[in-house]
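Q&A FORM
Asked by: J.P.
Topic: structure of Chitin-binding type-3 domain-containing protein

PROVIDED:
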Amino acid sequence: MVAFDPAVAPTYPAGQVVTYNGSTYITNVTSPTGTPGTSADYTLLAAAGATGVTGAAGTTGETGITGSTGVTGTTGATGVAGSTGATGADGVTGATGGTGVTGATGLTGATGVGLTGIVAFDPAVAPTYPAGQIVTFDGSTYIANVASPTGTPGTSADYTLLAAAGATGVTGAAGTTGESGGTGSTGVTGTTGATGDAGSTGG
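REPLIED BY: S.T.
REPLY: Here is the structure written out as tokens.
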């Protein structure tokens, strides 16, 4: 018994049993022609049975091993860039949001060092200066960095220079020579001197 094959059928001998579409046939002649079921060269031995009731589903088999990753294909050519679409219409302006709640007032900052009235530096009074006292010394102006500063402005770290003394100005031009004074008045005539002693008599 063999499955019917039209390419091999010309070699079948008489009496060859073949199957075709679920039915079984026998060749009546050598080198039969045509197809079993339609050709007189074949006789039906057993027709295909009716389709049976579908059997219950079998148990799912185990998952097979994952196959290896295939070779990455070549990158396709870049498509032509599409034309730029028209600009859309401007949207409607949204309503203005409500005013937010006012935040809490921040903490008051620490009191900074203030500026006290300007005084001329006096080493005898300096121990009473508060921080921030402004003093002048040798033409420059300083501020006390601490209370009761020590030392002298310009050399002590207890003072910071605010404004340096200006440079000495250029010597002015010589003034014009004054006019000659008038002749003084004649002095008072002195008193006559005392008469001298008489000379000795000649010999």
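FOLLOW-UP: The CA atoms of residues 33 and 41 lie 6 Å apart.
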